[in-house]
Write a structure and sequence with these properties.
- The chain has 2 domains: 8-95, Alanine racemase (TIM Barrel), CATH 3.20.20; 118-235, Lyase, Ornithine Decarboxylase, Chain A, domain 1.
- The protein is built from 5 helices and 10 strands, in the order αβαβαββββββββαα.
- It has helices at residues 8-19, 42-61, 74-79, 219-226, 230-235, and strands spanning 28-30, 68-70, 118-129, 133-134, 140-141, 148-154, 171-174, 177-180, 190-193, 206-210.
- The protein has a 4-stranded antiparallel sheet, with no helix packed on it. A two-stranded parallel ribbon has the order 1-2. The chain has a two-stranded antiparallel sheet with strand order 4-5.
- Strand 1 (28-30), helix 2 and strand 2 (68-70) form a beta-alpha-beta unit.
- The longest helix has 20 residues, at 42-61.
- The radius of gyration is 24 Å and the shape is elongated.
Length: 249
């Protein structure tokens, strides 16, 4: 990946130094696959693994056999069994969001279930007249051909980890109904158009930002809408967002 670690030509000397140390124990050998989630990159992944196997062979011939040998991230667990070695490194798959296999017959999907639901509450509800600009920059205006629109202010913004890039693009769910984000995402709140809902929306109502069930917004969909990856949306959730942990049965 050109990021960290040793080049293959350097690995044997580095391993010898570690093995000869009086205060370090040489226990593991690993590489990180740069493009394991994309079938278009399988040639590159195979090349990485061949280089890795060559290093393993060099170490073995030098009498160095680390106990832990690993290369497979979540995507490689699913797609590249030749890279499993003595252990694997499940990351995104532990949360249930690893990218599905393109070819299920060739690469059976990992059995996963998304484990996160991000929810918030309605702060207030406003009736806005036709032609009313909404939010910073007035990037959304209520349609002039209608009398009014009902807008819910919900307690989540980019300071909580909800991306600004979902302004006028994302959506959340209230009582199972799809509610589009209107206007720009603010620091602490986001505005939703709830005009067409069959139920009355009130302050305190629960809002699902993303969740594992239909018709909740999925994390993968929101990441695509935001032009990013699910890892980023998961890791950017602010520490001020309360976590509730529930055990499985």
């Amino acid at each position: 990946m050109g990021r960290a670690g040793a080049f293959p030509a350097e690995a044997l000397e580095l391993a010898r130094c570690l093995a000869g140390s009086t205060w370090l124990e040489f226990e593991g050998l690993m590489t990180h696959l740069a493009i394991a989630d994309d079938p278009a990159g399988d040639d590159h992944s195979a090349k990485q693994l061949r280089r890795f196997d060559s290093v393993r062979q060099q170490l073995a011939e030098a009498g160095l056999t680390p106990r832990f040998v690993h290369a497979a991230n979540s995507a490689a667990i699913e797609r590249l069994p030749q890279g499993h070695y003595t252990m694997v490194r499940a990351g995104l798959a532990l949360l249930g969001y690893s990218r599905p296999a393109r070819n299920e017959a060739e690469h059976p999907q990992l059995v996963q279930q998304p484990v996160l639901r991000l929810v918030t509450r309605v702060v207030s509800v406003k009736k806005l007249p036709a032609g009313q600009g909404i939010g910073y920059g007035l990037t959304f205006e209520t349609p002039t051909e209608e009398d009014e629109r009902t807008i819910a202010v919900v307690a989540i913004g980019y300071n909580d980890g909800y991306p600004w890039s979902l302004s006028n693009r994302g959506w959340m769910a209230i009582d199972g109904h799809r509610c589009p984000v209107v206007g720009r995402v603010c620091m602490d709140v986001t505005l939703l158009d709830v005009t067409t809902l069959n139920t009355t929306v009130e302050a305190g109502d629960e809002v699902v930002v993303f969740g594992p069930e239909d018709p909740e917004p999925s994390l993968l969909e929101l990441a695509k809408l935001a032009g990013t990856i699910p890892y980023e949306l998961l890791t950017r959730i602010s520490p001020r967002v309360r976590r509730i942990f529930r055990g499985s049965h």
